[in-house]
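Reopening this one. Same input as before:
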Amino acid sequence: MLGDLIYEAAGKVVGMRVLDDNGTMEITLDEQGKVFGIECSLTLTAAGKLRPNGMQYSEGRGFLITKDGDLATLIMSGISIPKGRPPSSSVRGATIFNTQSPKLARLNSVVCVYEGEVNEDNSYTIKDWEWK
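Same output, byte for byte:
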C-alpha cells in the first residue's frame, strides 16, 4: 500500500555513456525538488541494461542535499517502459535512503516506490511514495 508522498522533483539527464557492447549504459541525472516539502537537489548515476522487450533495468546511487545543507544518500532500482519516441518512457521502481540528518531521519525507516515520466528532450518528473 502506498503511504505519504516523500519526494517529488523535475530533472534532466546531464550525462550518458555506453559501458559495453551488450547495451549497458550509464546515465547521470540532476533533479530539483522537495523531500518532506523541503527544497532540495538530487544527483544520481545509474547503470541500465536493455532487455529484449525494449524495457531497461537500472540500478543507481545518488545523494540529496536540502537547501539547508542536510544530506542523504540513496540507492535505487527500477525499470523503464518505452512509450513513443526514445527516450520517452515511464519509469517505476524502488528507492532506499540513508541519512545522518535529524531533519531527514524518517528517510532511514522507509522504502519508497517511485514513478516517473521521461520526455523526448531527456527531461522528466518523478515522485516517491512511502511503501507501507
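So the earlier flakiness isn't reproducible anymore. For the record, The chain has a mean pLDDT of 96.
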